[in-house]
C-alpha cells in the first residue's frame, strides 16, 4: 500500500542524510537514528503497527547499497523492546515515547561504544609490540590511539587496494605519533612473523561467532593462525547480525561500487576473461581469538550466546 | 630386540660375556627391550674368560659408567679399541685369518653391548669394520691385512668424523646470523664446536642451553662455553615454554637419523623441537652421514635404551655410598654420575625419613611403583627444518637418498 | 632487557635474573618487588579499613611473600575470611551504605592483588564477594543469594519491577535499549543486607570445602578400564580424582617427575601407595611415552577468561605433545580458580622463582641467566575438557560461568565508581 512504502522510502532517505551529516558516527548510528525517525513519523496506533513500521523501515534500509548488515538485528532489538515494555501494561503513547527516547539514547551511546571498546582492548597491545591491521576501521583506530597514550608500539597497515583505506588509518595513527609501516596486501604473510597481534574491524559479527569484513580479512586471519598470532576483532555490539554462513558463497549479495583492483588502469576485462570482485569475506570463528565490543571482551562462543538470547 | 621372547632371552644369556641381572621391576611397555639392574663386577666374568682385550675391557667399563658418552666418542673409542685388538691379534695356525678375526671381534662387541647397548651409529661402525674384515684379500699375509685394517680405521675416523665435523661446522656457522638467539639442548660435540667457532669468528649471538634430567648434560656444555667466554642462559625444560618466544634458531646434535627422516637423539629433543616448531623456530640438526641408519622408527617405544632407573631419584636421596636420605648440604655435585654404587641390584636403602608415606628412594619397596629412565627419543620429520652434513645442507626428506648413495658407493 | 634484582635472601651472589626480553609492559604481570599504583600514594592504602582487617591482610600477605601458604584453596579460604570480617566490622569504617562497602572491599582486594598478582584466587574471591553484595542489594535482601539464580533470573522479569525488568550480569545485547543501571548503591542501607551477605560468603566457603569431592566423583565417567593416564605435578585435586577412579577401575598412570620441584615424584609415590599401577618418568621422556597415553590429566593454578590455563611450568610442553598424538587434555580445577582476566602470553601472572634448584651458587658459574618460572600458559585450544566442581565444560563455555559468578563492574578492582 502506498502509505507504507512512502514511510519506508522516507526511512531510507533519512539514513542517507544522517550518514552524510555525521560520517564520524558511522553507519550503525545513522541506521538507529533512521529507525527512530520512522517511529516518530509513523501513524500507527497499535503495538503490531509499530512493529510493522520498524520491520518495513528495516527492510528498506537493508536494500540500500553499502547498508550495514546489522540492520535486521537492530530492528529486532527495537521490536523486542516494544514487546517487553508492552508487557508492563503501559499505554501506547507511553511506549512510543519511551521507544523514541531510548532510540535516541542508543544512537548517542553507539558513539560512546567506541571509547568503551578502546578502553577494554588497549591492554591487549603489548608494549614494544607490532600490531597488524587491514584497511580502516574506526574502532581499531580508536583502540590503537587509546593504547598509544600509555605504551610505545608500532603498527603495520595493509593498504586494502584499490580503495586504499589503509592510508586513512596510517594518517590518523601517524598524527598521534605511532610509527606506522604501510605494506601491500600481498605482503601480509611476509610481515606476519614480526607481528605480536592482528586487529581488524568488522562490518558484521555473526551468530557463528565469525565476522564479515572487507575482502582480505579472512586471508589475514588464516595467515595469523598459521603463525600462531592472535587475531582480534574490534566491533560495536550494534553490528551483531543473525547470519550463519556455511561458506563464502553463503554471504548476502553485495555489489561494491569500487574499482576492480586487478583492472586499475587497464580498462574493462576483455572477454572471455571473467572478473570477480568480492567486496566482503567471511572469517569463521575458529580463526578469531577474541572480540572487543562494548559488551566486554567476548569469545566467539559468547557472541552466539548473546545473539541467541536476543532472537529466541 | 625381542626380550619378551623367552627363547631369544635364553639364547642371549648364553652368549653374554658379562652377565647382567634383569631388573626387579620390569616396565611392561618396554618388555621387548633389555632392562637391567646396574651391575658391578662387569669385568670380572670377562677377565675370567680371558678372551676380552684389555682396551675393550676398559672401554666397556667407561661406557657403562657414562664416562665415555655421546655417539662420536663411543664410535671413536670403539674403533680405536678395535685397532688395538687387530694389532694384537694372533690367530691360531692353519686357520683362515679373517674368519678368526671376525669371531674375535664378535666376542669383543658382545662384551661392549653387555656393558651398554650399542647406539645406532656404533651399529653402523660395527657393520663397516665387519665388512672390511670380510673383504680383506685372502692372499695377503696376515701382517699386511692387519696393517691395512688399522689404516682403514684411521681413514674412517679421519674422513667420516674429523673432516666431516669440520665441514659441518663450516656449514652450520654460516647459518648463525648476528643478533640470533640460538637454543641448544643437552650436549653435542659438534654443536659445541659450531658455537665456539661462530663466537671466535666474531658473530654476536646469544645462547640458550636447554637441559633436563636425569643426566643434565647441558651443565657441562655450559661450563665449557662459559670458560670460553660466551654468555649463556640456562633453561631447564620446564622453563622452555617461557623462554621460547625469544629464540630464533634451534641447533641440535644427533645420535642417528633414520630412513623416514626421524631424528634419534637424547630424550627431550622431541619436546624441544616440537615447541620450537610451534613458535616458528627452525631446527637445524648437525649430523655426520655415517650416523644415518637404514631403519625406520615411528615412535620412541619400538626401539630405545633404558638407563638405570635409580638416576631418577634426586641425588641427595640416592643409594650412593651410605649417604641415603642425608641433608642436601652434603649432597654430591649434581653433575657427577653416581659413582660405583655400593648397592648392586635389589638392595634397598634404609629410608632415613621412615614412617608413613615412603619416598621415591624406596621405590623398590613400593609394589605398584616403577621407575622408567629413557635415554632416547624419536623426533618426527615435520619438526625438523634442515640437516647439516658434510655433504652439504639437506632437508630431512633427503636422508634416505644420502644413505642409498653411500651404500652404493661402499658396495655394502 | 630489564633486570629485576630480588632481595639478597632469595638471589645470592653470582646470578642475575632477567625477565622476558623487550616488552616492559609484560613484566608488569610478574611479581613486582614493590607494590605499584596504590590509590593513596603517600599514606597507608588500607587506612580506611577496620584495624583488625588491616592486620589480617598484612598477615596473609606476609605468609604469601614468604611462600608459607602455597595451597590455592587455603589462600581462597583466608581471603573469604578477611572479606567476612570486613563486612561484619564495616561499621567501624563508617560504611553504612552499600556503595561504601563496595569501595572498601575493592580497596582491600586491590591491595592484596597488587601485592601478589600471580595469586589469582585472591582476586576471584574478592569478586565473588562483590557479586554477592550486588545481588543481595538488588534482591533487597529477601532471599539468600545462590550463584545459579543469576542465570535463571536473566531473560525473565525480576521482582524489582520499574524500568529494570531483566537482570543479567552486565551489559547484554538485549538490554541495549534499557535505561542505564538505575541501581544507586549509595542509597542502599547496609544494615539489613549484612546478614544475607555474610550468609552468602559462608556458602562460598562451604563450596570450597566440597570442591575436591565434587570433582573426584566425576572421575569414573572420564577414565575407562585399562587406560594409560599421564599427569605431572602434585595437584591435590588431580590426586583425589585419580584415587577416586582407581577405587572402581583398573588403569595405569605415568607421572612426569616435574623438575625442579620434584612434585611428580611425590605424586607417583602417593598414587602407588594407593594401589594404582604407576610409572615415574623424567620430564624429557614425555614425548616418547605419549604415543601410548590415552589421556592427559592436569591441574591448574588458574583458569583465564578465554579458557586458557595458568598451570605448573612444563604443562605447555605436555599439552603440545598431547596435541601431536591427538591425546585429550583434561584440566581439573575448582570454580574458585576461574578468573575474569585475560592472559597475554607466558609472562601473565607468572612468578620467577630462585634458580637455586637448577644451579647452585657454589658451582662457580658466573654470569648465567637462569629463568625459573613457576607457571606456564596453556592456550585454550590445547585443552579438551575442563572439569570443575559444577561439572564438565568446554573451554569455550568459560564466559558463561564467569557471567554467573562475577559482575563486570568488578573486573578492575582498582576502578571505583561514585
Task: Label this structure with key terms.
heterotrimer; B: 412 residues; alpha/beta; Four Helix Bundle (Hemerythrin (Met), subunit A); 2 domains; seven-stranded mixed beta sheet; 12 helices; 11 strands; globular; C: 418 residues; three-stranded antiparallel beta sheet; 11% strand; elF-2B_alpha_N (chain A); initiation factor (chain A); NagB/RpiA_transferase-like (chain A); translation initiation factor activity (chain A); IF-2B-related (chain A)
By DSSP, the count of extended strands of chain C is: 12
Low-pLDDT sequence parts of chain A? none
Give me the CATH fold name of the largest domain in chain C: Rossmann fold
Question: Major sheet of chain A: order of its strands?
Answer: 3-2-1-4-7-10-11
Structural class of chain A: alpha/beta
Family (chain C): Belongs to the eIF-2B alpha/beta/delta subunits family.
GO molecular function, one term (chain C): translation initiation factor activity
Keywords (chain C): Cytoplasm, Initiation factor, Protein biosynthesis
Pfam families (chain C): IF-2B
Describe the structure.
The complex is a heterotrimer of chains A (312), B (412) and C (418). Chain A is α/β, with parallel strands linked by helices and 312 residues long. Chain A has helices at residues 2-21, 27-40, 47-62, 71-86, 92-121, 138-148, 165-175, 188-191, 217-226, 300-311; strands at 130-134, 154-158, 180-183, 197-200, 204-206, 211-214, 231-234, 240-241, 280-283, 290-293, 296-298. A seven-stranded mixed sheet of chain A has the order 3-2-1-4-7-10-11. The mean pLDDT of chain A is 86. By secondary structure, chain B is of the alpha/beta class. Chain B folds into two domains: 6-160, Four Helix Bundle (Hemerythrin (Met), subunit A) (Up-down Bundle); 165-303 and 374-410, Translation initiation factor eif-2b, domain 2 (Rossmann fold), CATH 3.40.50.10470. Chain B has a seven-stranded mixed sheet, sandwiched between helices. Chain C has two domains: 51-211, translation initiation factor eif-2b, domain 1 (Four Helix Bundle (Hemerythrin (Met), subunit A)), CATH 1.20.120; 218-362 and 369-408, 3-Layer(aba) Sandwich (Rossmann fold), CATH 3.40.50.10470. Chain C has helices at 24-27, 51-65, 72-88, 98-115, 120-138, 147-153, 191-216, 219-222, 236-248, 263-273, 286-290, 315-324, 398-405, and strands at residues 15-16, 228-232, 252-256, 277-281, 295-299, 302-303, 309-312, 329-332, 368-369, 375-378, 385-388, 391-393. The chains are: A alpha/beta (312), B alpha/beta (412), C alpha/beta (418). Chains B and C meet through α9, β3, α10, α11 and β8 of B and α10, β4, α11, α12 and β9 of C.
Amino acid at each position: 500500500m502506498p502509505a507504507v512504502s512512502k514511510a519506508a522510502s522516507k526511512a531510507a532517505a533519512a539514513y542517507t542524510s544522517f550518514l552524510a551529516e555525521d560520517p564520524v558516527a558511522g553507519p550503525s548510528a545513522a541506521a538507529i537514528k533512521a529507525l527512530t525517525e520512522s517511529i516518530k513519523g509513523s501513524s500507527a496506533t497499535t503495538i503490531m503497527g509499530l512493529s510493522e513500521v520498524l520491520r518495513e523501515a528495516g527492510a528498506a534500509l537493508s536494500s540500500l547499497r553499502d547498508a550495514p548488515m546489522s540492520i535486521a538485528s537492530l530492528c529486532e532489538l527495537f521490536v523486542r523492546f516494544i514487546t517487553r515494555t508492552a508487557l508492563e501494561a503501559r499505554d501506547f503513547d507511553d511506549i512510543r515515547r519511551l521507544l523514541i527516547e531510548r532510540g535516541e539514547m542508543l544512537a548517542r551511546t553507539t558513539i560512546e561504544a567506541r571509547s568503551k571498546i578502546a578502553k577494554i582492548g588497549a591492554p591487549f597491545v603489548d608494549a614494544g609490540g607490532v600490531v597488524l591491521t587491514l584497511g580502516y576501521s574506526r574502532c581499531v583506530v580508536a583502540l590503537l590511539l587509546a593504547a598509544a597514550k600509555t605504551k610505545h608500539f608500532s603498527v603495520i597497515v595493509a593498504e586494502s587496494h584499490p580503495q586504499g583505506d589503509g592510508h586513512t588509518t596510517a594518517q590518523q595513527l601517524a598524527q598521534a605519533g605511532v610509527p606506522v609501516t604501510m605494506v601491500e596486501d600481498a605482503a601480509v604473510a611476509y610481515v606476519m612473523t614480526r607481528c605480536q597481534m592482528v586487529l581488524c574491524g568488522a562490518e558484521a559479527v555473526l551468530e557463528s561467532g565469525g565476522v564479515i569484513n572487507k575482502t582480505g580479512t579472512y586471508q589475514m586471519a588464516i595467515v595469523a593462525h598459521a603463525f600462531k598470532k592472535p587475531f582480534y576483532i574490534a566491533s560495536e555490539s550494534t553490528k551483531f547480525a543473525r547470519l550463519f554462513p556455511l561458506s563464502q558463497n553463503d554471504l548476502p549479495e553485495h555489489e561494491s561500487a569500487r574499482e576492480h583492483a586487478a583492472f586499475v588502469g587497464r580498462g574493462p576485462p576483455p572477454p572471455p576473461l571473467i572478473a570477480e570482485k568480492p567486496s566482503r569475506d567471511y572469517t569463521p570463528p575458529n580463526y578469531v581469538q577474541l572480540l572487543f565490543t562494548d559488551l566486554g571482551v567476548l569469545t566467539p562462543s559468547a557472541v552466539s550466546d548473546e545473539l541467541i538470547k536476543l532472537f529466541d | 630386540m625381542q626380550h619378551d621372547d623367552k627363547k631369544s632371552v635364553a639364547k642371549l644369556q648364553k652368549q653374554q660375556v658379562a652377565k647382567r641381572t634383569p631388573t626387579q621391576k620390569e616396565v611392561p611397555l618396554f618388555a621387548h627391550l633389555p632392562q637391567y639392574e646396574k651391575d658391578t663386577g662387569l669385568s670380572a666374568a670377562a677377565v675370567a674368560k680371558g678372551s676380552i682385550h684389555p682396551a675393550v675391557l676398559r672401554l666397556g667399563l667407561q661406557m657403562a659408567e657414562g664416562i665415555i658418552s655421546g655417539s662420536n666418542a663411543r664410535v671413536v673409542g670403539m674403533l680405536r679399541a678395535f685397532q688395538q685388538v687387530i694389532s694384537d691379534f694372533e690367530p691360531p695356525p692353519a686357520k683362515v685369518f679373517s674368519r678368526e678375526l671376525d669371531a674375535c671381534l664378535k666376542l669383543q662387541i658382545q662384551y661392549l653391548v653387555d656393558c651398554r647397548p650399542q647406539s645406532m651409529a656404533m651399529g653402523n661402525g660395527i657393520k663397516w669394520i665387519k665388512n672390511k674384515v670380510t673383504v680383506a684379500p685372502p692372499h695377503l699375509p696376515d701382517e699386511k691385512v692387519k696393517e691395512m685394517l688399522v689404516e682403514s680405521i684411521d681413514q674412517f675416523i679421519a674422513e667420516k668424523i674429523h673432516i666431516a665435523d669440520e665441514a659441518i661446522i663450516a656449514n652450520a656457522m654460516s647459518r648463525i646470523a648476528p643478533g640470533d638467539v640460538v637454543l641448544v639442548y643437552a650436549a653435542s660435540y659438534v654443536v659445541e664446536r659450531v658455537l665456539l667457532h661462530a663466537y671466535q669468528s666474531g658473530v654476536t649471538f646469544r645462547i640458550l642451553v636447554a637441559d633436563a634430567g636425569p643426566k643434565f648434560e647441558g651443565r657441562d656444555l655450559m661450563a665449557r662455553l662459559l670458560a670460553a667466554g660466551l654468555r649463556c642462559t640456562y633453561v631447564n625444560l620446564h622453563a622452555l615454554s617461557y623462554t621460547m618466544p625469544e629464540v630464533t634458531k634451534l641447533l641440535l646434535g644427533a645420535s642417528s637419523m633414520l630412513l623416514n627422516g626421524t631424528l634419534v637423539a637424547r630424550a627431550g629433543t622431541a619436546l624441544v623441537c616440537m615447541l620450537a616448531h610451534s613458535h616458528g623456530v627452525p631446527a637445524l640438526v648437525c649430523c655426520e652421514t655415517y650416523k644415518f641408519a637404514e631403519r625406520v622408527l615411528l615412535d620412541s617405544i619400538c626401539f630405545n635404551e633404558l638407563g638405570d632407573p635409580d638416576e631418577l631419584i634426586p641425588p641427595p636421596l640416592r643409594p650412593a655410598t651410605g649417604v641415603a636420605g642425608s641433608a642436601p648440604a652434603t649432597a654430591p655435585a649434581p653433575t657427577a654420575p653416581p659413582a660405583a654404587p655400593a648397592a648392586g641390584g635389589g638392595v634397598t636403602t634404609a629410608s632415613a625419613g621412615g614412617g608413613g608415606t615412603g619416598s621415591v628412594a624406596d621405590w623398590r619397596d613400593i609394589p605398584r611403583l616403577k621407575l622408567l629412565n629413557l635415554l632416547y627419543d624419536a623426533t618426527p620429520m615435520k619438526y625438523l627444518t634442515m640437516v647439516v652434513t658434510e655433504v652439504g645442507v639437506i632437508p630431512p626428506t633427503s636422508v634416505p637418498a644420502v644413505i642409498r648413495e653411500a651404500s652404493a658407493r661402499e658396495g655394502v | 632487557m630489564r633486570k629485576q634484582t630480588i632481595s639478597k635472601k632469595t638471589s645470592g651472589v653470582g646470578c642475575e635474573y632477567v625477565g622476558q626480553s623487550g616488552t616492559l609492559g609484560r613484566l608488569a604481570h610478574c611479581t613486582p618487588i614493590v607494590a605499584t599504583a596504590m590509590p593513596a600514594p603517600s599514606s597507608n592504602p588500607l587506612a580506611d579499613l577496620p584495624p583488625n582487617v588491616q592486620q589480617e591482610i598484612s598477615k596473609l600477605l606476609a605468609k604469601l611473600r614468604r611462600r608459607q601458604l602455597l595451597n590455592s584453596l587455603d589462600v581462597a579460604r583466608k581471603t573469604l575470611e578477611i572479606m567476612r570480617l570486613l563486612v561484619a566490622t564495616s561499621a567501624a569504617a563508617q560504611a553504612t551504605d552499600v556503595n561504601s562497602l563496595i569501595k572498601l572491599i575493592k580497596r582491600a582486594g586491590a591491595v592484596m592483588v597488587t601485592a601478589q598478582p600471580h595469586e589469582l584466587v585472591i582476586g576471584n574471591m574478592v569478586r565473588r564477594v562483590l557479586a554477592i553484595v550486588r545481588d543481595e542489594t538488588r534482591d533487597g535482601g529477601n532471599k539468600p543469594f545462590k550463584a545459579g539464580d543469576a542465570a535463571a533470573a536473566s531473560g525473565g522479569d525480576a521482582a524489582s519491577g520499574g524500568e529494570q525488568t531483566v537482570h543479567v550480569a552486565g551489559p547484554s545485547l538485549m538490554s541495549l535499549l534499557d535505561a542505564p543501571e538505575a541501581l544507586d548503591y549509595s542509597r542502599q542501607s547496609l544494615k539489613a543486607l549484612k546478614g544475607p551477605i555474610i550468609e552468602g560468603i559462608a556458602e562460598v566457603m562451604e563450596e570450597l570445602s566440597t570442591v575436591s569431592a565434587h570433582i573426584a566423583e566425576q572421575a569414573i565417567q572420564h577414565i575407562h578400564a585399562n587406560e594409560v593416564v599421564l599427569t605431572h605435578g602434585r595437584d591435590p585435586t588431580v590426586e583425589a580424582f585419580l584415587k577416586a577412579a582407581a577405587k572402581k577401575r583398573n588403569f595405569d598412570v605415568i607421572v612426569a617427575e616435574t623438575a625442579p620441584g620434584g612434585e611428580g615424584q611425590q605424586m607417583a609415590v602417593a598414587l602407588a601407595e594407593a594401589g594404582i599401577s604407576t610409572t615415574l618418568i623424567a620430564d624429557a621422556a614425555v614425548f616418547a611415552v605419549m604415543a601410548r597415553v590415552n589421556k592427559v590429566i592436569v591441574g591448574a593454578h588458574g583458569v583465564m577468561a578465554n579458557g586458557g590455563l595458568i598451570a605448573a611450568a612444563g604443562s605447555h610442553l605436555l599439552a603440545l605433545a598431547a596435541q601431536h598424538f591427538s591425546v585429550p587434555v583434561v584440566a581439573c580445577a575448582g570454580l574458585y580458580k576461574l578468573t575474569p582476566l585475560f592472559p597475554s602470553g607466558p609472562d601473565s601472572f607468572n612468578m620467577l622463582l630462585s634458580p637455586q634448584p637448577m644451579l647452585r651458587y657454589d658451582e662457580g658459574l658466573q654470569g648465567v641467566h637462569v629463568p625459573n618460572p613457576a607457571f606456564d600458559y596453556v592456550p585454550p585450544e590445547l585443552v579438551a575438557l575442563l572439569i570443575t566442581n559444577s561439572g564438565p565444560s568446554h573451554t569455550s563455555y568459560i564466559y558463561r560461568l564467569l557471567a554467573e559468578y562475577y559482575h563486570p563492574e568488578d573486573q578492575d578492582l582498582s576502578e571505583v565508581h561514585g
